[in-house]
Recover the amino acids of this structure.
């Protein structure tokens, strides 16, 4: 299987994703990109000073993590939730519950400049 970095739908560096204030604090926002028949899905998590992007794919099953809009975080905002099977990931992407213990979410490099979120 090709990695997400080989996906022609994955946007290159410098693409504006949104204004930072469009991402709730704490919260997340998902992004989808299509190139012909290929799709790339990513999301950005924000909690205080932490702003991080991940490829929207469960390392265990390969499906998107949020099945309900942009609800990537648990209610207490301390973990990223895979709604497909309930696995939890720390905000640094490390899986902490079965079936994803020790697995990591794939990073999607992003950066914030002047209150705007861009791909990096």
């Amino acid at each position: 299987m090709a990695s997400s970095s080989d996906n022609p739908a994955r946007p290159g560096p410098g693409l504006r994703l949104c204004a930072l204030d469009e991402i709730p604090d704490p919260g997340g926002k998902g992004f989808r990109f299509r190139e012909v028949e290929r799709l790339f899905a990513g999301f950005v998590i924000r909690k205080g000073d932490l702003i991080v992007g991940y490829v929207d794919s469960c390392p265990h099953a390969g499906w998107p993590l949020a099945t309900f809009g942009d609800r990537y975080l648990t209610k207490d905002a301390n973990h990223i939730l895979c709604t497909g099977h309930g696995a939890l990931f720390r905000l640094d992407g490390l899986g902490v519950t079965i079936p994803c213990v020790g697995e990591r979410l794939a990073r999607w490099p992003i950066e914030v400049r002047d209150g705007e979120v861009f791909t990096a």
